[in-house]
Amino acid sequence: MKKRSIFLLAGIATLYFNNTYAQETPMDSTRTASIDQVVITGNSNPKKKIESSTAISTFSAKEIQKQNPISAAALLQRVPGFAVETSGGEVGNNLFARGIPSAGAYEFVQVQEDGLPVFEDGALQFANADNFFRVDNSVSRLEALRGGSGSIFATNSPGGLINFITKEGTNDFKGTAKLETGTYGLMRTDVNLGGALVQDKLFFSVGGFYRTDNGIRKTGFKANNGGQIRLNLKYVFDKGYAKVYYKKLDDRNTFFLPIPLVQNGNDLKEFNGFDPNYGTYSYRAISQLNIPQAGGGFFSRNLEDGIHPKVDVLGAEFKYDLGNNFSVLNKTRYTNINMNYTGIFPAGGPQLAADFANSNGISGNNFQYTSVSSGAIVNPAYVQKLGFWAIDKQMNNFVNDLQFNYKFDKGNVTAGFYKSNWKSHQYWNWSNILTTATDRPQLLNLVDTSLAQTDTGYSKTYNGVTDMSFLIRDSQIQGSLNDLYLNLDYNITDNLSFNGGIRYSRDFYKGYGVSTTTANLNNSGLTTDGTHSFLTTTADDNMSVLGNKYTYWNYDVNRVSFTTALNYKINRENAVYARFSNGFRSPNEEAYYNNMNNLSAIKPVTTNQLEIGYKYYSRTFDVAVIPFYSTLKNLSFTDVFSDGTSENKFANTTNLGVELEGYARLFNNLLEVTFNGTIQSPKYQDFTGRNADGTTFDYDGNSVRRMPKFYFNISPAVNITKQWRAYVSMNYYGKRFQDEKNTQTLPSFSEFGAGTSYQLGKIRFAVDGTNIFNTIGITEGDPRAGSPTGDGIIMARPIMGAAVRASITLDF
Questions:
Q1: Residue 353 host element (H or E)
Q2: Where is it chiefly localized (predicted)?
């Protein structure tokens, strides 16, 4: 691994210093002057960034291309205020906005495409918003808003809005085609075309990608395989426009979970037999599951399918000038998602082979491990119990956003009605398997040699499965959202402007959960191996079976969110603003499920945020400094543990912090530097209570789990010539605590990347390296294991090892 890192660094350094510097603006410069940028997210009308009283970051298509993010989450690392965990792979990652803790996903922000949600709730169980979205060449730009007016222009988004805006055709026919390969078997093709079918009237844009790769972590199969296509048609007439669009996503992605490491304070080392940079429990040798069910039939699953969403999106947008300064804008979209989700979730950490056998009722040394594949006796030092979790979700969402706008001399007023109906039905079937505690794990059987093969409980496994379908869940949740909103922009003077907004939410949620019982296969007539009955194994002793009792629940939300702000434009390049906002997030799915019989125990999470910002934008230098303070009440903690139970606690939090964002083009465009960082101190308040086992806890004043107090990203680039550019990047993620008790420390780490590009006419050649020093950096411990253990052998999820991608892009 070290040799690979040194070779990569040396190669990039050679390119970095191998030519003379130019004194003119490079063709491959990454930045569009912020002073001229116009934003639409979190505003009732397009306005320049310096005139917007919001904390907003923007990335053009060209900037995204130069960063070449390996996932949507990797791109969002460039946004201050967003603490992003990218170790899950291309999808299934977590984003925490301004220190707001959650079980993961995108719980307090809304991920949008063209101003409407990718799915109404971005944090449904096993349905992170980035499962249903991919960054490709059809993206025109990204606008990422933190806090502020997020709660006025979208639901359940007090942490902010993430709006990916897609390309549209123009009178000029344009296109881009990209071919990319990499060190991990990557082959990817991106294409986007756009132009006019009728000059000045009818425009089209079509694009998408297809990608296959083996994964940076070695799975033994195609870790990622699939793609998407997106197209739109836009008709422009004298008083407005009409647009229709369609998106199809069909993609398979492996989801990576914690692996064993050895920790000594801030020092992390590999666990013997497990490569921390490239190893994973998600491996081909344990990828197939086929087990009989207590209710009859068999349940089969293939780990190679991973997270496999099939997404169909059909939408339309219409804008019309009504005259007398009135206009109407209507956006509508229907989304249908069928997703199979299969992942390996460790059930605790590695155990000594003897200890695991003893904990399963085998005394002394009367245990024997054998390989499932060969039948040979093996003597592993450590064994690992792994959850083989299978989830199927059927989801749909119909949303319509209707707004009227009135412009007057001093500003404008926008009034809107937002309607969204959505439903998610899910079925879980979880089993546990036994393997060697190594990367490239092998399935194991375990028997008690003090018993005869025909004795009850002789075997602790069934073809490597220790707990057959120990958890089955059938549940559904629906939402019906009915929101009215009003936003006012008023120019008090030429330089001083006021913004105020209010949103009234009358939202209805309902759902059900199906009861379960336990059973076994002892009297089923089935055999474990063609000879012995299931009486001889304990693997089927606690199988879950769906019952016929449905628990129905209903929950109503009746709340008002509001915001108010002042923006003072000191001059063309300098501005200050202040904003106060109040918003909320409805209870999450697991909170409803855990409290179906007592919904009074849960409440919407309410937020108050105050931010004061300074912005300076010029053609060569940008800086934004935004101090903020936030409070949250009724925050629920709902991690699902490896045994199928879930945490059910509630807390309040406070956070005081500052976001920094900057860009500089120096020395006659020789050097470009982009920077973003966040300093914060999120703390628990009023976090006391009783654990499930009856013990009490008091976490008042503790640091919020998984939240770094300091994190930043800096990326300097040298324009070697007008065509040749090289960059390095550093992503620093500060020390955190895995748990509310602040027992398990997650050490700080720095991840370095580097790359170079060369523009030859309309063709761009690029090489990008990620984690070039093979840093072992963990973003989370094991939230499914309950209380952490501190130093020693730990379970944690590290970032990916070093990888290199090379690409050729043609613009025409």
A1: helix 353-359
A2: membrane
